[in-house]
Amino acid sequence: MQRRGLLIILSSPSGAGKSTLAKRLMAWDPTLSFSVSATTRNPRPGETDGVEYYFKTKPEFEAMVDAGEMLEHAEVFGNYYGTPKGPVETAMMAGRDTIFDIDWQGGQQIRRSALANDVVSIFILPPSIADLETRLRGRAQDSDEVIANRMAQSRDEISHWAEYDYVIVNRDVDAAEAELKTILMAERSRANRQPGLNEFVRGLNKEFEAR
Ligand code: ADP
Ligand code: 5GP
What we know:
The protein has helices at 18-28, 58-66, 85-93, 104-111, 129-139, 144-158, 173-188, 197-209; strands at 7-11, 33-34, 37-39, 53-55, 70-76, 79-84, 98-101, 119-125, 166-169. It is α/β, with parallel strands linked by helices. The protein has a domain at 7-34 and 97-209: Rossmann fold. A hairpin with a 2-residue loop joins strand 5 (70-76) and strand 6 (79-84). Helix 1 crosses helix 7 (173-188). The chain is globular. The protein starts with 6 loop residues before the first strand and ends with a helix. Bound molecules: adenosine-5'-diphosphate (ADP) and guanosine-5'-monophosphate. Adenosine-5'-diphosphate binds next to helix 1, helix 5 and helix 7.
């Protein structure tokens, strides 16, 4: 029997390093799947439809919600963001773990859903607010107005840190990546996540009996 895939939720204030850490985790374990969200925000330079996001108009997004196609959805920074359900269910059933880069509202909705037992939630904190702003500016992909809006919202996002299973302070990116891998390895090793164990131990017992 195969174990169900985990739902690995990463949240943080914008610019703390979620996408960077998610990309590193996926390079380390190519079996991980990334949940591509739908959003009504405009693509940033270099973003491709279907890769970072599915870029939708408001009516298209609302139609997906109405059709029950979203696992969760929320308004973030004045735009709609949501997680399409289909790919998540497919990955779970195939035993593949999925990474979600979603805000606290999405994290809360999934944690309160029927999938709660499959969730591992991780909150990423910046080492300081000054560093957070430097990183947002350094990414050089958003206007001053967008950056100011995200900085203003970051306090609210940070206030939800205690709702998460794990918290990583992303000072050094290599150290943060190592912590993330450790969490994933530990969660995969939980007894209730290894459905083959009964049979495996039966095999060990047979070996005892044959001695
Ligand atoms: P988020 O996805 O949380 O909005 P990003 O992963 O896009 O954040 O990171 C924002 C910026 O900060 C990027 O330019 C990224 O390269 C940089 N960054 C991420 N982690 C660190 C770190 N530990 N130290 C310095 N810069 C970092
Ligand atoms: P960005 O515009 O920087 O890509 O993302 C802005 C915020 O929206 C981030 O906090 C990100 O985690 C969040 N986000 C991205 N996709 C989703 C989603 O599908 N659902 C929810 N609830 N938040 C999302």
